[in-house]
TrEMBL record:
<comment type="subunit">
    <text>Homodimer.</text>
</comment>
<dbReference type="InterPro" id="IPR045864">
    <property type="entry name" value="aa-tRNA-synth_II/BPL/LPL"/>
</dbReference>
<dbReference type="InterPro" id="IPR002313">
    <property type="entry name" value="Lys-tRNA-ligase_II"/>
</dbReference>
<protein>
    <recommendedName>
        <fullName>Lysine--tRNA ligase</fullName>
        <ecNumber>6.1.1.6</ecNumber>
    </recommendedName>
</protein>
<dbReference type="Pfam" id="PF01336">
    <property type="entry name" value="tRNA_anti-codon"/>
</dbReference>
<keyword id="KW-0963">Cytoplasm</keyword>
<keyword id="KW-0030">Aminoacyl-tRNA synthetase</keyword>
<feature type="binding site">
    <location>
        <position position="418"/>
    </location>
    <ligand>
        <name>Mg(2+) 2</name>
    </ligand>
</feature>
<dbReference type="InterPro" id="IPR012340">
    <property type="entry name" value="NA-bd_OB-fold"/>
</dbReference>
<keyword id="KW-0460">Magnesium</keyword>
<feature type="binding site">
    <location>
        <position position="411"/>
    </location>
    <ligand>
        <name>Mg(2+) 1</name>
    </ligand>
</feature>
<keyword id="KW-0648">Protein biosynthesis</keyword>
<keyword id="KW-0479">Metal-binding</keyword>
<feature type="binding site">
    <location>
        <position position="418"/>
    </location>
    <ligand>
        <name>Mg(2+) 1</name>
    </ligand>
</feature>
<feature type="domain" description="Aminoacyl-transfer RNA synthetases class-II family profile">
    <location>
        <begin position="184"/>
        <end position="495"/>
    </location>
</feature>
<keyword id="KW-0547">Nucleotide-binding</keyword>
<comment type="similarity">
    <text>Belongs to the class-II aminoacyl-tRNA synthetase family.</text>
</comment>
Length: 504
């Protein structure tokens, strides 16, 4: 009869085994120190090549000496000769380590090295009988001793919560994760190159601000001890960048962190990367053209094609992006024509009929936007510019001259998600003050996401801002799209997590 295993006993035994392995690793380090071979005294190592480079240029490197370094991920000891796999930035490469080539003492040391140790290998590039490109070691150097245990190779680091908390382990165990973040860096570089080519100037603006405006979001609050003032972390880059347009810097952009005191889900992280740009003497149509060209350029540069996979669909950024008004979108997907709705009472009635929840403070334009969110967004899979939003939800945007209840604004939607938000910027200081005053009234009614009047910004507008187009891009969502990542945490190296007891 089979013995019943006690789960608690098994866990205890596993922990005891782990503790013993950790003890042995520290003991090995102590022995190295005692023998005058402390790896932590090594300050540099003359790396000449990386794994992918050696494999890609094997024909010209065969028989030549290279120096590689990285983390030992596998090791097979077979008497007088062994194999190990060294993982570096670009991937992994096998090394053949023989006693007769590195010396008896060095080989004894090598046999004691652990998975996870960081090693340097000097040797000759060759191809094994099985066809694997490798490095035949003439010396192996222990560069750093790993005192912890990596996850088991074939199962990897599968605990999602732990992957996000210990991203350094995630990057070691999952090559696709490393590739995602390498691609993220390339995406941001491609954006900068594109904008530089369009004559834009990169700038930096404050993160700690007295008035957190420019978006509908709750800020994080803190206190500045030196000035004895309460300040906020910025929620947007907009109002300071517009000040620079007033100052005569005609094309500016900033890529930086913003902070919004809101929930965490697959699309939102309270700390995220935003890019905003402003261009004098253009409007939201100019911003549409720039956006379409930039997305296409970045996709081709980073992915090699403007047609990219996301989930089970192919997103086509090669062909012209669709353009439709919010009114037409709601009419198409919700079957409601807000051109025929003339009063707030009529808007509330149709919302009640369609089951769209609204609050007492919401006006007709707010309800139109609620219909859009309820019925339209999820259907906009291929790139689509949604234009001409109601003025009630656009406090910083220029009105449409022929339809003053609406504004010259668009949002770009792909995969049912908003990727950017753009305006013909409001440069009329009288109209802007009226919009800010309406926002102040919303604050009095309990809206924690409304904007306070920014008097210094108002002063800048009164000095005079030229006609301007402006836009804000969620960089993280663009990275999600171009890396086929389902959640924002997958493209943030260190996403926001609730602290564990030991972290506090």
């Amino acid at each position: 009869m089979a013995e019943n295993k006690n789960p608690e006993t098994e866990v205890q035994r596993t922990q005891e085994d782990i503790n013993e392995i950790l003890r042995i690793r520290r003991e090995k380090l102590a022995q190295l120190v005692e023998a005058g071979k402390d790896p932590f005294t090594i300050t540099k190592y003359p790396v000449t090549h990386h794994s992918a480079e050696i494999k890609a240029h094997f024909e010209e490197l065969e028989g030549k000496e290279v120096v590689i370094a990285g983390r030992m991920m596998q090791k097979r000891v077979m008497g007088k000769a062994s194999f190990c796999n060294v993982q570096d930035l670009e991937g992994g490469i096998q090394s053949y380590v023989a006693r007769d080539m590195i010396g008896e003492d060095s080989y004894k040391d090598f046999k004691k090295y652990d998975i996870g140790d960081i090693v340097g290998v000097r040797g000759e590039v060759f191809c094994t009988k099985t066809g694997e490109i490798s490095v035949k070691a003439s010396s192996v150097t222990l560069l750093s001793k790993s005192l912890q245990i990596l996850p088991e190779k074939y199962h990897g680091l599968t605990n999602t919560d732990m992957r996000y908390r210990q991203r350094y382990v995630d990057l070691i165990m999952n090559q696709d994760v490393k590739e995602t973040f390498i691609k993220r860096s390339k995406i941001i570089s491609a954006i900068r190159a594109f904008l530089d080519g369009e004559g834009f100037m990169e700038v930096e603006t404050p993160m700690l601000v007295a008035n957190a405006g420019g978006a509908a979001a709750r800020p994080f609050d803190t206190h500045y001890n030196a000035l004895d003032e309460d300040v906020h972390l910025r929620i947007s880059l907009e109002l300071y960048l517009k000040r620079l347009i007033v100052g005569g810097l005609e094309r500016v952009y900033e890529i930086g962190r913003v902070f919004r005191n809101e929930g965490v889900d697959t699309r939102h992280n309270p700390e995220f990367t935003l890019m905003e740009l402003y261009q004098a003497y253009t409007d939201y149509h100019g911003m549409m053209d720039l956006t379409e060209n930039m997305f296409r350029h970045v996709a081709k540069t980073v992915c090699g094609s403007a047609v990219v996979p996301y989930g089970d669909v192919m997103i086509d950024m090669e062909k012209p992006f669709a353009r439709l008004t919010m009114l037409d979108a709601v009419k198409q997907y919700a079957g409601v024509d807000f051109n025929e709705i003339h009063t707030l009472e009529e808007a509330r009635a149709i919302a009640d009929e369609k089951g769209v929840h609204y609050e007492p403070r919401h006006q007709k334009g707010d309800i139109l936007n609620l219909f859009f969110e309820e019925f339209v967004e999820e259907n906009l899979i291929q790139p689509t510019f949604v234009m001409d939003h109601p003025v009630e939800i656009s406090p910083l945007t220029k009105r449409k001259p022929d339809a003053p209840d609406y504004v010259e604004r668009f949002e770009l939607f792909i995969t049912g998600r908003e990727f950017c938000n753009a305006y013909s910027e409001l440069n009329d200081p009288i109209d802007q003050r009226g919009r800010f005053e309406a926002q102040e009234e919303l604050i009095r009614q309990g809206d924690e996401e409304a904007n306070h009047i920014d008097e210094d910004f108002m002063n800048a507008l009164e000095i005079g801002m030229p006609p301007t187009g402006g836009i804000g891009y969620g960089i993280d969502r663009l990275v999600m799209l171009l890396t086929n990542s389902p959640a924002i945490r997958d493209v943030l190296l260190f996403p926001t997590m609730k602290s564990l007891p030991n972290d506090k």
